[in-house]
Structure formats: C-alpha cells, structure tokens
C-alpha cells in the first residue's frame, strides 16, 4: 500500500497485529500536517517523540510487514474461506442470529454477529471456557456493559446490540478450529438462552 496514492494523511500500525513484536509501531503522516509533540526532550522522530529507538523492534516490524506483504493474497483467500464457512453455518443453523456489517465486503478475518435474547458477554465467557478467545465488542470497550455505539448507530436496538459476538481469525486459525467452534456454538447459545 502506498499511503500517498491512497490519499491517507496519517496512518498508524501496531507490530503485534502483523505477528511482529509487541510494543513497536509505525506512524506515517503527510509532511504538511503539523502535530504537537507527544513526548518532549529529544529530537527523535522530527521532534515529535523523544526517546531511544527500539532498533530490534523496528527491524522485527519491518520483517513482519515484509512477510505479510508476501503472504497476503494466499492468506486472505484462506481466511475468507474459513470466515465464510463460519458465517454460513452460524446464520443458517442458529435461530435469532444476525450478521452485522456487509456480508462479503468486510475484512477477510472478521465476523460480527448479534444474538437475540442473549448476553454477548455471557457468550464470550462460555466460549472462553470452551477454549475460544472471542469478544463482544471492540478492544477499547472491553468490560463496558453498554451496547456498542457502532451497533446502535446502524439501527440495532440496545437489547439486540448487547448480544454481540466478534470473532477474528488469524494466521494460526485452522479449519479444525472453525469446525470445533461451529459444533459448540449452538450448544452454548441454547444453554444461555434457557
């Protein structure tokens, strides 16, 4: 991706999201954008952030970006297959569940559902106990019992929005994982609805 060609003024990347090192990131900004320093005291990063560069982390992030670029097409195809298999099963076999967002124009590794008559937080706990790491909302809202502003913004009722489940697949997700998930999910949903 070329940020300038995409007309992107600012872009930030977290290393761990690309299977790179934790605690390192990348920040791009157009030269004509003026920002206030976040940490003063040195001239690093054009005086925007003082401190010693994390050279091993930066090298690790560069390698992670390089590998992600090489693997992207094949990995996206694999993830789309797994995601679509999961979405198809969940929406066709569990009553009172709805896919949120566009059915196909979405991230290759992401599926978000809402379940009628069910607490998304309770479902996340049950899935965790079954060995699955899922979420009932965005990472920045973990532990917040209120329904997602985004789900409310697309017109869902507060009660339905509280039944949200977000599943994100990754590099190490397999078809076996999906098969286990689609085996246990209807059982957990039925149990929690009783």
From TrEMBL:
<feature type="domain" description="Aminotransferase class V">
    <location>
        <begin position="6"/>
        <end position="181"/>
    </location>
</feature>
<protein>
    <submittedName>
        <fullName>Cysteine desulfurase NifS</fullName>
        <ecNumber>2.8.1.7</ecNumber>
    </submittedName>
</protein>
<comment type="similarity">
    <text>Belongs to the class-V pyridoxal-phosphate-dependent aminotransferase family. NifS/IscS subfamily.</text>
</comment>
<dbReference type="Pfam" id="PF00266">
    <property type="entry name" value="Aminotran_5"/>
</dbReference>
<dbReference type="InterPro" id="IPR000192">
    <property type="entry name" value="Aminotrans_V_dom"/>
</dbReference>
<dbReference type="GO" id="GO:0031071">
    <property type="term" value="F:cysteine desulfurase activity"/>
</dbReference>
<keyword id="KW-0808">Transferase</keyword>
<dbReference type="InterPro" id="IPR015421">
    <property type="entry name" value="PyrdxlP-dep_Trfase_major"/>
</dbReference>
<dbReference type="InterPro" id="IPR015422">
    <property type="entry name" value="PyrdxlP-dep_Trfase_small"/>
</dbReference>
<dbReference type="InterPro" id="IPR015424">
    <property type="entry name" value="PyrdxlP-dep_Trfase"/>
</dbReference>
């Amino acid at each position: 991706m070329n940020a300038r060609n995409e007309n992107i003024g600012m872009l930030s990347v977290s290393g761990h999201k690309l299977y790179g090192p934790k605690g390192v990131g990348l920040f791009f900004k157009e030269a004509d954008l003026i920002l206030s320093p976040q940490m003063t005291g040195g001239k690093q990063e054009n005086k925007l952030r003082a401190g010693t560069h994390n050279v091993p982390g930066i090298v690790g992030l560069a390698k992670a970006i390089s590998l992600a670029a090489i693997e992207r097409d094949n990995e996206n195809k694999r993830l789309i297959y797994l995601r679509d298999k999961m979405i198809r099963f969940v929406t066709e076999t569990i009553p009172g569940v709805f896919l949120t967002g566009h059915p196909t124009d979405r991230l290759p590794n992401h599926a978000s559902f809402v379940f009628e008559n069910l607490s998304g937080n309770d479902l996340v706990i049950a899935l965790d106990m079954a060995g699955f790491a899922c979420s009932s909302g965005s990472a920045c809202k973990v532990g917040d019992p209120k329904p997602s502003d985004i789900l409310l913004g697309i017109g869902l009722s507060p009660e339905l929005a509280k039944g949200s489940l977000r599943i994100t697949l990754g590099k190490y997700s397999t078809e076996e994982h999906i098969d286990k998930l689609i085996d246990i999910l209807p059982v957990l949903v039925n149990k929690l609805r009783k």
